């Protein structure tokens, strides 16, 4: 079974992708940016502000699906400037327990949507009821 997940707020942006897709016991979250929820406008304040908002946006999608950061097992991080990797990490580690850090890849990207400094996509374990 494949389930395509979009909240009304996500649909309001009119973007051509699903906020998340559930396939079996895995929830695949689309890449999240540091945009204000429901808007195509990045928060101000640079990398750390965008990183916080990005992680908050991910947290919102997880909560809407009955999950939390403990359920995330893989993240892919895209940075517009790899020199800001350490700045991103300062924010990122606040969202995970030190013994439950997801597997992760990070790479530099030549241009992210909306001119963002960071984009993060995640996969989370979402067992079906009764499993």
Automatic annotation (TrEMBL):
- Native source organism of the sequence: Labrys miyagiensis
Q: Which SUPFAM superfamilies match?
A: YjgF-like
What this protein is called in its record is Reactive intermediate/imine deaminase
What family name appears in the similarity comment?
Belongs to the RutC family.
Looking up Pfam families in the UniProt record yields: Ribonuc_L-PSP
